[in-house]
Amino acid sequence: MSKQDGLWFGAVGALVWGAATLFYVAFARGVIEQAFWFYALNAVLVAAATAMFFQLTARLRHLPRRRRVIAALIYAAPGILGACALAVNFAHLLPALPPQSVGRYATLVIVAYALLIAQALEKPAPKRA
Q: How high is the pLDDT of residue 22?
């Protein structure tokens, strides 16, 4: 994978994390955290969107499947680091949200990136003749 590809994956990963975090901040108190089933549905949707943007970036960059694991790690790194920084400073940065939201937010991020990495580790299907 080239340095330019790494920069692309890192930048897109940071944008996707930022958008997902802004969505969480905007709708957590009023919508997302109202019921467990809705929170679980939101977590699945965020994980799917995260994976979709990774796959879209990989295809646009014509990245072979054998190189997608490192690309997925680069893509996930800004989100994981950003989520850690936000979790440590959650009460100061998001005082309007209840304290238990930090655990819910961290779970959302962990699920999304775990599924992304698992998808990147999946071996490609053999080509049929």
A: 87
Q: How far apart are CA 20 and CA 49, in angstroms?
A: 9
CB 49 within 8 Å of CB 111 = no
pLDDT digits (tens, 9 = 90+) for 59-71: 888 888 888 889 9
Residue ranges of the chain whose pLDDT lies below 70: 1, 30-35, 129
Cβ atoms of 9 and 74 closer than 8 Å: yes
Helix/strand/coil percentages in the chain, nearest 5: 80, 0, 20
Say if CB 8 and CB 61 are below 8 A apart: yes
Residues 6+ apart with CB under 8 A from 27: none
Task: Give the DSSP per-residue string, 17-49.
Answer: HHHHHHHHHHHTTTTGGG-HHHHHHHHHHHHHH
State the number of CA atoms in the 13 A half-sphere of 4 facing the CB. 4
**Total-model pTM:** 0.81
Residue 32: the pLDDT is 61
